Amino acid sequence: MVGLLQGTISPVAIASQGALQVLAIFFAAGVASIDWRIHIATLTKAMVGVGLPVVIFGGYQMFARTYRWKYAFLPVTNHQQYAMGGLQRGWEKDPFTRASSFFVEPSEFGYYCLWLMLLGLTYTTGRLRLLALALSFLGIMFSQSLSAVLGTAVLLICYVAVSSISASVIRQIAIVLLASVMAIFSVQPLIPSAFEKFYKRIEQAVTLNSEADSGRVDHLPENWEMFTSEPVWGGGLASISSADANGTDVTTFTYFLMLIERGIVGTFFFLAPWVWLGWRAIRLPKTNGFRTVCILLSALNLYTFSYSSMAYTLSFWLALGICASLILRTYSPAMHLGLAGMEMMTAAAELDEERVAN
Fold it and tell me: DSSP class of residue 285?
């Protein structure tokens, strides 16, 4: 409404952005109607099952992009336009070794691996947890995503801070870390340039060198000026984009994107559910088995809001719906009764089989 009244953006842009976000909110409501106390384990198994081919192909792609093998850039993802136009990012660089697997961007591959790590840390069965953690560490190594490395640190710190860690969990994390180090030393001689660039980016990030984030920090002074011009209500949805027509970045930080487009009022209302649910998760009893997964989901979301390309993706709303279901018990009573009815029918069928057998 603000953007429309100010006349700064086209009604079509407002309508498209608004419609996408309304659909995303409906998606979150649908997710929240599911009883995730029952299905969180199924989600973990599905993520690991899908993660196996995703990470394996990511490992292949790392070599394929170095040596120009077949399927180094998949036709489906390679046709996605990047900000400067043309083919997928990295195609013009020789060599470009950061794997994106079945995703368009290496950072999105790394973000998927962060979900694997989160679900692996909070899963109760040892073998599946070990497999999820191994896939997540390997995938992050293949993606060479600095954001995923920082996200790993955020998840591990939060996990240590809020959960009671058993000896088995420590042993499994140590095994995965040792295996990852061995994998790095095994793969590094085959593609040394890839790891040299990766180590350099991590060193630049530690020393706060702006080259680590490809100059994204350089835009923050201009972003601040854009925000202070309309600080309360902002310019409205779609009033800016992550890049202009010439491919010059305007902002790549979602927090600034929200402040510029929505202002302080809109940003407050947009972030309020995430922060509130995170606080509710922290206040859950430590005996609650879903406390850790809710806190980690909230922390991961608040961290990954720094990616402008991730702001409107369904993974944010998936996490919000899961947290709402586990914390607020928003799952549908009809679904709950349906599951209970199915359990009763299953028990009755087993009893009938037992009677027939007797």
Answer: -
CA torsion sign for 211, 214, 215, 216 is negative
Pair of tokens at residue 180 = 């990852």
pLDDT of 50 higher than 80: yes
Contacts of 235 (CB under 8 A, 6+ apart): 2, 3, 6, 8, 9, 226, 260, 261
Band of the pLDDT at 108, cuts 50, 70, 90? confident
- Residue 164 is given by DSSP the state -
- What does the alpha-carbon distance between residue 47 and residue 131 come to, in Å, rounded to a whole number? 11
Mean pLDDT over 93-102 rounds to 79
pLDDT of amino acid 226? 82
CA distances to 82, 269, 345, 356 from 105, rounded to whole Å, are 10, 29, 47, 58
Q: Which amino acid belongs to residue 186?
A: S
What is the Cα–Cα distance from 331 to 30, expressed in whole angstroms?
9
Say how far apart CA 249 and CA 218 lie, in whole Å: 10
Query: Which segments of 188-313 does DSSP mark as H helices, in order?
Result: 192-206, 220-229, 254-282, 291-304
| Comparison of pLDDT for 219 and 296, the residue scoring more | 296
